[in-house]
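Record type: monomer structure entry
Structure origin: computed from sequence
Chain ID: A
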Amino acid sequence: MSASVLVVPQPVAARPISPVPAETLSRGALADPDASLGPDWAGSKDQLVAGAGDRSGFHLFVARERDAFAWSNLTTLNAGLPDVGNWTGGVCVTGSGKRAVAVYAPTSYSNKPELATKGAYVAVVDLTNGKVVPLKERVQLAYYNPSCGAGERVLVTRPTDVDQQTTEVIAIDAAAGKVTSTVRLAGQFTNAAPAAEGDYGILRGGLHRLRAGKLTKLADPGGQPFAVRVTAAGAVDVLTVDEAKPGVEARASAHRYDGRRHTVLGTGRATGLELVGLSGGRNALVGDIAGIRRHPADLVLLKAGDKTRVASREGHLLLMSASPAETGQADRRTRLDVTVRATRSGRESRHTVTTTPKAPADVAAPRAGRRQAPSAQITGEVITNPFFRPTCAVPRNDIRRQVLQPSANQVEWAVDLAVQGKLTVSRPANYLKTGGPAYTPQGLFPLPSGPRVPAQVMLAVLAQETNMAQASWHAAPGDGGNPLVSDYYGSRSSSSWGWDYIDYSSSDCGYGISQVTDGMTWDSTKWTEAERVAISSDYAANIAAGLRILVEKFNQVQSLGISVNTNDPRYIENWFLAVWGYNSGVHPQGEPGANGNYGLGWFNNPANPSYPANRTPFLRINTDDASHPSDWSYPERIMGWAEVPQWQWIDPVTKYSKPLFGSSSNQLSLPSRYQFCGAANNCSPFGDNSGCDESCWWHGSTSWASEAAPLSTEKLVYAVGSAEPAVKAVYPKRCTPFSASGALVVDDLKDSSINPLGCAGQSWGGKFTLRLGAPAGDGNSFYADIDVHQLGAGYLGHMWFTHSVDDSDAPLHQVVGTWTPNIRSGIKSWDIVVHLPSHGANETAAEYLIQPGIGIYNDPRDQERTCVVNQDSATQGADRWVSLGRHTLGPRARVQLSNRITGANGEVDIAWDAMAFVPATGTAKSCGTAW
């Protein structure tokens, strides 16, 4: 075997070297490519393809060496889901380098076992032009999905249930953009790898070949496998984590199976060795390669100091991390913090990549024959749907059900008091204008008898569940907004895609900051109407209700005789089992069909091979872990958020305090990956027949900390009796009424006092309606309602917004707002002025249609006129009034704004706020000028 070498493509004629342009540097180009990449970089065909998610979707980026590896946003994928928070996923490139396959989902899916195991979306992307072919299959959100090889066949997998004891292997022909086969296998089959002469993967620790629907065991690599790839020549490379003694750093072994024999090539640090694919059907070992003693010619060695996420096609650039860069500003551009390493020079660089986002390219085209509802109209009152009946109890877009988004200090205050049973702040009648009775949070939802929850455990749960948000993801702290509901319309968990579908039978009614689900459907009797409204609208009440559930899970686990360590609930680590049950449930003794099994399910067991065996503790080494949370079990993530407090998603500050650590390392004491793997759940951690049989539910007692000293306890910031802190609003509220002599002001609500910001009401000089679907009522539909949002921003603390859509998407997603002034009689000149909010509006070409309403036949003054306005709050930065021009108006005058804009991509916010009609005096202002 030869020494380690870097395979470099044959150079082609290089173009003259010139300084890297500033625009290219802003997209992450290497500032000194000659030094980093070598003199031939400008003629290279190497490219890196990577995926990263933010709140607009999962973005696929391409960085080409000839551009000094500047990043470009190739396409955006979001399945047409408009209000789901951040996205995550994985991507691989086919053997030709012409196509990529992406598996992607909202990060919140990692919190739902059913969605994490078979809810992720799949799409094929043409890397030459960005064309996307979405597939109907829904698969597992796992680190080994998708899997590419030397050809154009790509494999994805999904278990048939959350216990993962049956697996479906789905083959995709990326060139044709279609699924070619689905094979169902008994057992948990992971790390599927495509090959020309049969596919490969891991079943119960052994390397197996899958051919013609049948499995054949080929080798027992030992340890726990976490990577499998096949070369163009048919050799199979495998990485495993070896069994290690306590306190000894784990090692990973590199294996090769060449069809005849199994060879161990060497070892490296388990957390520092990865297996990736390169062009030409080659593989590469990346990271700690010093211990790799030998390697074939088609197995390249690439040195790196940190864990590698992605390698470029020729191995010239390694991506170490990529996560959204939070700027705290309203900005439609995509920003990523990335760390890369040039393998030729060993140089690492860290920078923020700024690119222009793409329209979602995976939204299925409208289908004929879908159920259609009558057009809907919003008049500032409760929206009712005469055709469908929502499953979830508290509706969206109901002005009496607005939610105030809390800031991090308020959440920590509520948790600190709630864990002490003292969250008794008085909420007056009609709190947040909901019309409900007076209450206190823990008067409605008192703590059950049981242990006290450490504050950092509850804070970590809130961080993982919702990023500590009570209102919709669109609302910044200090804003009002719709309730945060896991899946109000059922469009995420159904077999269909996106905003064209409503399936209330599939709704997930998890509400608010702790995602309280039980009792939140319309037909449930668990809570009263007042309690349900409090859960959905008041972050403090929601925390009180969520805390009850966590205590109940601890009690349930204890009742089954399941415990860890000292079993003392004062210690954060001793809540590992309770948060496990909080997420995926606890199976009681005597459960029907369980054959005597009981305990905590396999999905969240750290020994589950759905999680990479070489992972480091969540967030301990790299905060980029938060961008791909499905690589860790739920209890591991909660321990990570308790140890490393979440940072604010608007401001660059941490949201809550660290715990009082029990050791000088300032780290929690965590269980090993195989702490819950043994005879109790038929589980074997290493070697032949590793994994588990039957249900794999764990019960019993185990300990990884023999004394209390190494364990950690809570740290409280707020003492009993502390007053509720003021919200740290990101944007100032606009409660100052418009003032102009004789002005007729028309707001977007009938009663503007119904806002959670405390703005006083004002009498109006007209009415506003927001109509969804075809304006005449003869077409579609309530599908537009999915993407209509109310926001506590703008004039007097309320506005509506949706996204601009192209004419081809209308009338299915058409939304038309109409302002009608009360011009009683007469025809005269009026200045029309529209209020634009400081955020929540980004449309640069909002076309207002002015209909004079004079009603005189052939009167030229009665012709419709338009005024195109730039609503973009990212460039303006504050609430403002803008002129629509001076117009002669009569008694039937009105102004309309539609979200139908030619060429719109469905990504840009367009808003409806207040409008003023002012009797004309002085010099007229032209369309689009400041008032």
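Annotation 1: The chain has three domains: 40-355, 402-470+512-702, 744-919.
Annotation 2: The CA atoms of residues 489 and 502 lie 5 Å apart.
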